[in-house]
């Protein structure tokens, strides 16, 4: 099923990264800058991060694993005590924009400004420059790969073009390791119902949501793949859902052959395998397109319409 598998450390069958995006209320201010102060119920829903993060950290401590948190820099400034708990327990703090801005809606200059502003906040707060980035809402732009390479990032986790790590290459000679995920690994479609964000979907039970994630895990385990969740504390950190994640981790550990790792650890392993020649990943050149494709040039479209 996977034509070019990578060997995981200590003979592990698959790599598992339970990543959480701690967006808190950054997304509310971004989407509703003039009325966020009036949306008190939605703000309370998002601020549940302050309850969920300590719960998630206790769960990780119970299972003796370190994982990755992608946090908008504004949230680091706004909720420093919560982020301090993440760092205190040895987890990775990765870049997730400044105010969860969408890079593909910005100019290259604007994207670079917010990227650097986020880097500065993380470096000052943690004492370490971030090595990983996830574009808010997966909105990777056609400039992102070159900006990430320019700023010395090791990996990205925004794209969805494979089941295993691959390389991204733009105009720069430097390559970025892509640690892919996909919407089926996101908790937003399973649990999010909020009119202020335009989401009005049936809410899945924790067991129903877990069916899909466990199916993805079983396939990754069988074929040597990688399992990367994209979860949010204010959704998956809720009591029943977090309890179900706790049981999931126990199941994975009892099954055996699972490498629980931070995203940085996975990226460093990939780099080592590439450097020593034991892994030859696909290289994807970006951007895929730069403007309208030739087949849809205006004169041709006008001809089709006629």
What would you say this structure looks like, in words?
It is a single chain. The chain is an alpha/beta fold. Helix content is 43%, strand content 14%. The protein contains 13 helices and twelve strands. Strands 1, 2, 3, 10 and 11 form a five-stranded parallel beta sheet that branches. A five-stranded mixed beta sheet has the order 4-5-7-6-12, sandwiched between helices. A two-stranded antiparallel ribbon has the order 8-9. The termini are far apart. The model has no long low-confidence stretch (mean pLDDT 96).
Main features:
306 residues; alpha/beta; 5-stranded parallel β-sheet; 5-stranded mixed β-sheet; globular
Task: Outline the secondary-structure elements.
Blueprint lengths: L13 E8 L4 H6 L8 H7 L2 H15 L4 E4 L1 H6 L1 H9 L3 E4 L12 H19 L5 E2 L10 H7 L4 E2 L9 E4 L5 E4 L9 H4 L1 E2 L4 E2 L5 H18 L2 E6 L1 H4 L2 H17 L2 E3 L2 H13 L7 E3 L12 H8 L1
Parallel strand pairs: 1-2, 1-10, 1-11, 2-3, 4-5, 5-7, 6-12
Antiparallel strand pairs: 6-7, 8-9
Helix pairs in contact: 3-11, 9-11
């Amino acid at each position: 099923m996977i034509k070019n598998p990578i060997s995981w450390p200590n003979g592990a069958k698959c790599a598992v990264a339970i990543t959480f995006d701690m967006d808190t209320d950054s997304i509310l201010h971004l989407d509703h800058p003039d009325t966020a102060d009036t949306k008190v119920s939605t703000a309370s829903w998002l601020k549940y991060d302050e309850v969920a993060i300590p719960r998630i950290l206790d769960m990780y401590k119970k299972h003796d694993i370190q994982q990755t948190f992608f946090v908008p820099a504004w949230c680091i400034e706004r909720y420093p005590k919560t982020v301090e708990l993440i760092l205190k327990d040895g987890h990775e703090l990765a870049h997730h924009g400044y105010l969860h801005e969408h890079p593909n809606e910005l100019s290259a200059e604007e994207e670079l400004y917010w990227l650097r502003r986020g880097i500065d906040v993380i470096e000052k707060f943690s004492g370490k420059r971030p090595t990983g980035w996830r574009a808010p809402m997966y909105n990777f732009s056609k400039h992102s790969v070159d900006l990430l390479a320019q700023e010395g990032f090791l990996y990205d986790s925004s794209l969805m073009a494979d089941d295993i790590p691959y390389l991204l290459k733009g105009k720069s000679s430097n390559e970025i390791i892509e640690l892919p995920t996909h919407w089926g690994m996101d908790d937003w479609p399973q649990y999010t119902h909020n009119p202020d964000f335009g989401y009005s979907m049936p809410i899945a039970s924790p067991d129903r949501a877990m069916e899909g994630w466990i199916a993805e895990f079983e396939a990754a385990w069988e074929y040597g793949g990688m399992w990367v969740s994209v979860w949010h504390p204010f959704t998956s950190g809720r009591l029943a859902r977090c309890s179900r994640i706790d049981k999931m981790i126990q199941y994975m550990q009892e099954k055996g052959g699972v490498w629980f790792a931070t995203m940085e650890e996975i990226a460093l392993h990939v780099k080592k395998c590439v450097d020593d020649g034991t892994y030859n990943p696909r290289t994807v050149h970006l951007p895929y397109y730069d403007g309208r494709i030739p087949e849809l040039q205006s004169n041709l479209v006008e001809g089709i319409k006629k």
